[in-house]
Structures are given as C-alpha cells and as structure tokens.
Design brief:
It comes from Penicillium frequentans. The chain is an alpha/beta fold. The strands form 3 sheets. Strands 1, 4, 5, 6, 7, 8, 9 and 10 form an 8-stranded mixed β-sheet that branches. Helix content is about 30%, strand content about 30%.
Amino acid sequence: MSITHTENMSTTGSYKPGALDSRVSLLPQGNHLLSLMTILRESKTNVATFAEVTERIGDQLISAALDLLPSKATTVVSPTGAEYQGIQETAEVCGVSILRAGASLENALRRGYTGPLSFGKLLIQRDETTSLPTLYYSKFPAEFASKTVFILEPMLATGGSACAAIDAIKEAGVAEENIVFINILAAQHGISVLFDRFPSLRLVTAAIDEKLTPSNHISPGLGDFGDRFYGTH
C-alpha cells in the first residue's frame, strides 16, 4: 500500500495544524476507506459491524505502518525454478496496546507482520473532568529497547494518554525514532501535542478531525471507541 500526504508538507519544525509533514502517514482517502469511516461514525452502527469495520481499517493501517520498516534484499526460488529478487522485513516489532481500545488493532498486526513479533500492554486512564492521564500498569517483553514499537490506540484527542504512553516506552529504553503511533482517528490538536513533545515520532492514521468539543472529545468523531467496540455503552 502506498502512503499519501497532503500537498502542504513540512520536514522541519513543529507540526502545524492543517498541514501534514513527512512524520504523518494518512491513509489514501478513497471512497472505500471513507465508506468504512462513515460506518464507524454512524451512531446507529451495531457492535458486530463496528468491530468488523475496525478490523478492515486496521489491516490498512498496519500495512501502511509496515511500509515504514527497514528491509533487506533477498533472493528466493519460485516454483518454476527461477530466482526472484525480493525484499525481507528485518525489524523486530512490538505492538503496545493502550488498553482497552488499543487491543482492537492487535489482530490486524498479527495478520500483517511476518517477522519477529511481540506485544506489550499499557493501562492509562484519563480523568474525564481534567482530561489528565494516569498510568496504572505497563508490561513489556524481553529486549524491549531493541524493538520497533507500534503503539496501538484507535483515538487521539488531546494527546495526554498518548504522551504518557510514549514517556513510558522511552523510559524502558526505546529510541523515539523507533516508535510509530497507529490510530484510526486523530484530532489536529492531539497531533500537534505529540510532535511538539516527540519530534522524531511517526504517526499513521486513517482520518484527521479538526475540532475538539468543550469536554475534549473529537468532533465530529465517532464517540467512545471502547464502548462501541465492546458494546458497553
């Protein structure tokens, strides 16, 4: 899958709302993806359909994120006996889910990556009054610091929980340039916050919304992702 950017791009300085730079990979905004996003945004979409569409969008997000990984040339022999000059992905990837919603993207990563793969978990809860995050739990695999980390989190609103997650991952020894934040829907504000704090981060998303509500929810958004995915609303 190719990764597209808007024409207004910048490769230096802080992220500017309304523009995308080389650190942001926005999925191609074709009719099929937009139709899937419309289903997620529709308030009447049932739990089963919401989960199924999440899986489809997740496959596209993971494919785009995997395109960012290093690879090496390799030669294989096809069933006809001819040699094929191909490539092989070489990074050791760890998918870190921000619970609970982040777990919704784990299956897509399992399907998509054929190289060394492991998973970690973070439990971060946002105070609905102050919007401030608290880290309650973290669990990472062995040799975590040497891996390329895919943070799995469907929603990026204020950026508070995302920043707390990245801080925890960096404290565990992972280099900032080896962290990719993967999400379905990002607010302009949240993207700005992330890149102001972490200029070497990379982000892959399916959609970007411009506004936050007074209660710091994405608008138009799609509601509480965890509640809609797990049917707890």
